[in-house]
Design a protein that fits this description.
Low-confidence stretches: none
Strand content: 15-25%
Strand order of the largest sheet: 1-2-3-5-4
Helix content: 40-55%
Structural class: alpha/beta
GO molecular function, one term: exodeoxyribonuclease VII activity
CATH architecture of the largest domain: 3-Layer(aba) Sandwich
Number of helices: 12
Order of helices and strands: HEEEHEEHEHEHEHEHEHHHHHEEE
Catalytic activity: Exonucleolytic cleavage in either 5'- to 3'- or 3'- to 5'-direction to yield nucleoside 5'-phosphates
Mean pLDDT: 86
Protein name: Exodeoxyribonuclease 7 large subunit
Number of domains: 4
EC number: 3.1.11.6
Radius of gyration: 60 Å
Enzyme class: hydrolase
Number of strands: 13
Amino acid sequence: MLPADTPALSVSDVNRRARSLLEQGIGEVWVEGELSGVSRPASGHVYFTLKDANAQLRGALFRSRARFVATPMRDGDRVKVRGRVSLFEPRGDYQLIAEAVQAVGEGELLAALERLKQRLAAEGVFANARPLPCPPRHLLVLTSPTGAAIRDVMAVLAARWPLARVTLIAVPVQGREAAPALIGALGLLNRQQALDPARDVILITRGGGSLEDLWAFNDEHLARAIFHSRLPVMSAVGHEVDTTLSDLAADVRAPTPSAAAEQLVPDRHDLLRRLVSLERQLHRATQARLNRDAQRLDHLRARLRHPGEVLDRQRLTLNEVDARLARAMQRRLADERRRLAHLQRRLAVRPPRREVEQATIRLTAARTRLEQAMQHAQARQRERLTGLARQLQAVSPLAVLGRGYAILEDDRGQVIRRAADTHPGQALTARLGEGRLLVQVTGKVD
């Protein structure tokens, strides 16, 4: 038991602790029960109560998640709700904050669909991403002729692009016959493409509905037919929260039929506004260019002079240049005359013949001296060569050999200096003063 002096908690503190314990202790769960008291106020949130035979649990599905829930929520429906258990602190209400809602029985169907989706993704069936022409030359719409989808598509096309050429291919979009009919229509349109090359886009569409209503568009064979279509395919099945295998296999997916039409064609009003804007920009750019050119023309006109004035000015310049040239030529001629006279005087003082004669005399004397010097040098070099030859003869090994000595060499040309370097039977070469002898060692003498 707590002492009386223990600090008291506020109601907010208690509720905050209770909310934390609920959220952390239970976490996210699936809860199955029957809906009752479903209300949808103007805020867009959905409030409800889940009950079974023994208990009930309040719940809230906020607007941010409610728009992704395709399952209708009506009193008496049995559903599975995924969410987290929490507590609304201002009132102390214990509640389930819903994230997803499924009708009971849909879980197994959705699980099988998810497995099929993963298998097709692994095979590359969802890899189409061809760009669509905008606007298409000839749009082929596969849908019910009486459904709201074709009316929405045609209304948007008429408002945005009245020139659109559209052909409706009437097919069932719900029930067992829907998927085979869609597959057959796709095959026929692809085979007929050669007959009308202008056909360039196929739109498969229908309005929203329950999971069962849209189930034909989750057919595996239809997804494969869309993937193998030579014509690009846009899929717009159901509402924004609905995603079928047809949407994933198509080249482009639109959230609704109206959104598909908006993506397929441009808005003529936007184009018209753009054209008007471009026209204004062109007008402003043209006017600015004309103003710049006019200003430039005025500037050039102000700089422009009469050709006669230009010719007179150039004639004066030419006369001045001609006069300067004449004066320069006269000065150059006078300088050259003075230089020529100077050279003539120098030539008269020292005639070339006398210079040649004196140079001839000097050349003859130099040749005589050169010959004498060469003779003296040859004599000195000859005497020096004779002395060097005598010195070489005195130290030459050949001179020693001439006195009766010999040089012994082994088969590698190495000189034998010691008897220990030989062995009996070894062949040696004896080099004499004149000639060589081949000798053999028969023994050593100590």
